[in-house]
UniProtKB/TrEMBL annotation:
Catalyzes the methyl esterification of L-isoaspartyl residues in peptides and proteins that result from spontaneous decomposition of normal L-aspartyl and L-asparaginyl residues. It plays a role in the repair and/or degradation of damaged proteins. One of its GO terms (molecular function) is protein-L-isoaspartate (D-aspartate) O-methyltransferase activity. The lineage of its organism: Bacteria, Pseudomonadati, Pseudomonadota, Gammaproteobacteria, Pseudomonadales. Belongs to the methyltransferase superfamily. L-isoaspartyl/D-aspartyl protein methyltransferase family. PROSITE patterns: PCMT. This is Protein-L-isoaspartate O-methyltransferase. The active site is at 70. HAMAP family: PIMT (MF_00090). Its EC number is 2.1.1.77. Coiled coil: none annotated.
Amino acid sequence: MNTPNLAGIGMTSQRTRERMIASLLEKGIKNWAVLDVMRTTPRHIFLDEALSHRAYEDTSLPIGYSQTISQPFVVARMTEAVLGNRSPEQGKLPRVLEIGTGCGYQTAVIAQLAERVWTVERIQPLLEKARRNLSLLSVRNVRSKHDDGSLGWPEHGPFDAIIAAAAPQQVPPDLLSQLADGGRLVIPVGSERGGQELLLIVREGENFHRQVLEAVNFVPLYLGQVQY
Ligand code: SAH
């Protein structure tokens, strides 16, 4: 089962979550599968208690170690982009790779739309936090590891979708080579100062079609330096 178990977590935040969904719709999110999953996924459990009252504002928030939980609109946009025109008859995305697990919120969202998810995080305590959060929601189709995600996870590729939640200066070649034919990669690229673009790259054989989705503001993707 990929549906999170909400028993015991309480539905007190359901109304504020509905407001978040209304704001995502207003901002142009159209995919109902994505909106439905975000309507039922409790974002507040991914935050420290002092910030949990802000969980359904459409904003990124600190999660420690100088990192942030992604803004709900950006999570929705990225998830929508990797799903593309996938129809319900086509079922869930078979294999998804995520780079930058952070607190695990995006992981929990994509895990409900995928058969299996592999996720890589370079900061060990954040990875442990994400594992606790995912287990609290009974998300069981995710495997995670502490490593440099710019290398992907070659043993488990090729992937139908890859989502990166941190921005490199350029697209890491290993991520391109681990995309399946027809696979979709969503990744922010650029620097914190010079501006970043959220790219959608779709593989067709040896051709990689690029499309710019949005101007964005992600934390940097660090190459080759695993921490803690
Ligand atoms: N989707 C996450 C976003 C976390 S912020 C959430 O909503 O919580 C981005 C994450 O990418 C941070 O946790 C950061 O540590 C991680 N990161 C940065 N460079 C990385 C790399 N090379 N490999 C794996 N993770 C990386």
